[in-house]
């Protein structure tokens, strides 16, 4: 590789983190061009052809690199995409791979930040969104928490929840070799985390196997007074069905950082959606994900060997 590196973040890193990224790239022998706040479309910010000209490696956050960008003539020199964070549904990994472009993420850098947000949302809704003392709230201690997925974020949630004295169980299609060390019960199927649960927290990616799997039938297995939290991906939840469940279950609550259904009329006292996605929005996660992304680009520039390649 001999071209330039692009730092393309419509949602920019902190200034010091940006400076550190540029420094790391320059120390690896490449210039780094920075594009921040470049697209008024905050939901699907998309790099322009001019931004991709001569770009051999690009660092992104929620910026979209799919068919449009990958098929720009100006993207012909692109060899590496690094997503600063875990989720990569904003990148067409298969198309990138077919063009010889490696896609990487930075797993674990945002995990604790997202886990703390999930716990915060549990507390916020359990205490009636801090509206005052007209209604009694609920404690986390002694409550059953079901974790949908047991990746990096869910493991952090489990650790924090156990500190509150919660009974934690999980379901996933795969588990770490040291699963027993987490002190979490394993459910045999997805229904198991919902059955009799006080809280369910979602921590799976958006894919064909997970999309719409959190639905009315499954949340109806939870206790009458119960709380659903989604800090993962919006399409995993069938929000139209969740609204139906809320209409039929007057003590069921839903909190989300990734809502997809803005047109639905939610019961305000039992529903909360963050104004903008907050999962990774901490100083620590911002720093860790940006620096790790830059170090992975530098490693690739020096060795040609990808880290955490996903395609």
Can you tell me about this structure?
- With 311 residues, the chain is of the alpha/beta class.
- The protein is built from ten helices and twelve strands.
- Strands 8-7-6-9-10-11-12 form a seven-stranded parallel beta sheet, with helices on both faces.
- Helix 1 packs parallel to helix 10 and helix 5 crosses helix 6.
- The longest helix is centred in the last third of the chain and has 21 residues.
- It is elongated and about 60 Å long.
- The two termini are 19 Å apart.
Sketch the topology as an H/E string, one letter per element: EHEHEHEHEHEHEEHEHEHEEH
Question: What's the rounded overall pLDDT mean?
Answer: 94
Give me the side-by-side strand order of the main sheet: 8-7-6-9-10-11-12
Distance between the termini: 19 Å
Give the proportion of residues in helices.
25-40%
Major β-sheet annotation:
7 strands, parallel
Q: Which regions are unreliable across 5 or more consecutive residues at pLDDT < 50? A: none
The beta-strand count equals 12
Radius of gyration, CA atoms, in whole angstroms = 21 Å
Task: Report the β-strand fraction as a percent range.
Answer: 15-25%
Count of helix runs: 10
Structural class: alpha/beta
Shape by Cα distribution:
elongated
